[in-house]
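*** Residues and shapes ***
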Amino acid sequence: MDIDRAIRERHTLKVLGDDNAPLPPPPDEFADTMVALMEAGACAPRHYTCHGSHIHGDSDSLLPWRCHALTGASCRRLMVRVSQAEPGGKVARMLAVADGLILVTWLPDPPAVPTDPPQLFDPTRRNMEHIAATAAAIQNMLLTATATGVHTYWSSGGLLRDQPMLDSLSIPPEQVLLGAVYLFPPEAPSATTKTGALRGRQGEPGHWMRWVSL
């Protein structure tokens, strides 16, 4: 699939299954597809490296984001935890169907001056650039998924944003979740699907585009 087609065909598809009767996870080989998506994300533009405080141990990348990937089998195990915290909730129902989940966090520069109560980051241009770069990385993943026939849903995280849940996933508290990218199978007959509410509502080009003459 060429890039123009991938851009135009990319769309949100929320797939909701039954957390009491989850689908079997995909074959182990699907992990290779997930790696390809995350590698595509690493090609996104970025203006700055992450702050040195985020570089330690085995996390020595200069990228201003991190990917925390769960296979389908891990999604089903996480589904059990989420169901206990929020029975019948949408997050658990999506985890019951997902072939995989990529939790994408951005790495803020720490505040220049400590505050009370503590603030995770300052509203600086560098932090704005980190968020923009991470969003571009997520878009790369979504487009690559579309090109390979994988349905996606970019969620803000919902219950997964809660610190106890992040702690259970070993996601450091100094990282901020920007997107929970669900990867769904091409077909899930027993599931309910919902498309994005804003698709097709961008208006005419003249509503959001103008030429600048000097």
